[in-house]
């Protein structure tokens, strides 16, 4: 089953609920995941890197369990994490334990704690609220009983791990999100993001285009397993999952 | 401008955020409003009347103002209020002062206080989070820059005020919601709700059908100003607003 979730609330510690980003989290049939969190209206200090956060990883990045009949657990440990790549101080490292409840309305509550000052220091609680979307539609359409079956929706995952770059691009339904790190460049110049959506006519509309190596992302996203796909700058991506 | 907002969070007092309903609030071009709040999975005690609340009113029901540059105020005083019609104890009476902020993501925060134990007793704070929808689409599609212009979207308002009944039906875009009270029946038998959406093929799909006098709702919702429309049980509705 694929998932495409849009975040509707982010609440940290004692702050009031808010949502300044257009965050989408994608999950492939086989459990690859990516979450890109661009600010909608970045302020002056955010302009150069207008993202709250971005992370991604293979299925092993998210260990799924159950706390009780109403609560799922996911223990995240991301292979791609912009905070880690940027070596930002006072940001969390390692596993994040999260607790998930589906509300009667179909919205999904996520709660957890992060430890930005170290695992032995006080944690900070967070609450995020997610709306599952119909990944087969090119607009932000809430998932409901009229939606296409997300169990069988398309998902394709591309990866690259070269001398200089590592990246992950996940397509679920009509939506693609990608992250590409330049290994030796631990500044915002080493981070690239892609978000695009396939329109009704089959063309791809780019929604996020960030980073000096953006042209190394693949130009097409849907291919059979084990295919090799080149970006326009000759970086070769490998198809590691293909449900098409 | 019409509005069609879906509620994504309801938080009261010290309780955790939640959303158990599929609440839609409609506002017509001229300021008629209706909000119907059906439980998605009513529990045993809610089965007979599976609604958190329903209210509606003419433009005078909502006095709009400004608290500061970021905060709008709306002082509500509903002409139709299920709590009042049912004479429920420990529910609010009279004006409700609310404060509205639009988040950068486009979600809309509403905060306020209700006084269920009387205006001289302690108030209870509430927080509601709203997602504006594209009223011209038959699914729950988030309003964004690709949406149709809601400034000029269709709105039609029908009212009835007979010896026995009073009611209000509001169409915005493809969505219709209606409320009908039997004046002398201050029980749930005196309350009727309608929600329907116009499909792509022009047919209307009923989403909410509640009440023993449901057949007194009009069968068509779009008509020119001052037209008279009959329900199947010979109650005559009058068109008081028509932007078609």
From TrEMBL, chains A, B:
<dbReference type="GO" id="GO:0005789">
    <property type="term" value="C:endoplasmic reticulum membrane"/>
</dbReference>
<dbReference type="InterPro" id="IPR043047">
    <property type="entry name" value="Hri1_N_sf"/>
</dbReference>
<keyword id="KW-0963">Cytoplasm</keyword>
<dbReference type="GO" id="GO:0005634">
    <property type="term" value="C:nucleus"/>
</dbReference>
<dbReference type="Pfam" id="PF16815">
    <property type="entry name" value="HRI1"/>
</dbReference>
<protein>
    <recommendedName>
        <fullName>Protein HRI1</fullName>
    </recommendedName>
</protein>
<keyword id="KW-0539">Nucleus</keyword>
<dbReference type="InterPro" id="IPR031818">
    <property type="entry name" value="Hri1"/>
</dbReference>
<comment type="similarity">
    <text>Belongs to the HRI1 family.</text>
</comment>
<dbReference type="GO" id="GO:0006612">
    <property type="term" value="P:protein targeting to membrane"/>
</dbReference>
<dbReference type="InterPro" id="IPR038744">
    <property type="entry name" value="Hri1_N"/>
</dbReference>
């Amino acid at each position: 089953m694929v998932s495409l979730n849009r975040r509707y609330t982010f609440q940290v510690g004692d702050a009031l609920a808010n949502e300044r980003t257009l965050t989408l989290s994608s999950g492939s049939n086989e459990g690859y995941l990516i979450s890109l969190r661009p600010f909608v209206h970045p302020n002056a200090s955010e302009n150069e890197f207008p993202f709250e956060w971005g992370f991604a990883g293979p299925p092993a990045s998210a260990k799924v369990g159950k706390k009780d009949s109403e609560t799922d657990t996911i223990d995240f440990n991301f292979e791609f994490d912009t905070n880690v790549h940027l070596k930002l101080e006072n940001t969390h490292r390692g596993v994040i334990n999260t607790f998930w409840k589906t509300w009667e309305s179909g919205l999904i509550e996520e709660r957890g704690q992060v430890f930005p000052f170290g695992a032995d220091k006080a944690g900070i609680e967070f609450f995020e609220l997610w709306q599952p979307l119909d990944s087969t539609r090119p607009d932000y359409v809430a998932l409901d009983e009229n939606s296409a079956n997300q169990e069988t929706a398309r998902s394709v995952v591309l990866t690259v791990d070269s001398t200089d770059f590592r990246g992950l691009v996940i397509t679920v339904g009509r939506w693609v999100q990608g992250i590409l790190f330049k290994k030796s460049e631990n500044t915002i110049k080493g981070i690239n993001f892609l978000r695009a959506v396939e329109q009704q006519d089959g063309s791809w509309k780019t929604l996020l285009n960030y980073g000096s190596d953006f042209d190394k992302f693949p130009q097409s996203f849907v291919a059979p397993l084990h295919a090799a796909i080149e970006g326009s700058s000759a970086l070769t991506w490998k198809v590691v999952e293909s449900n098409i």
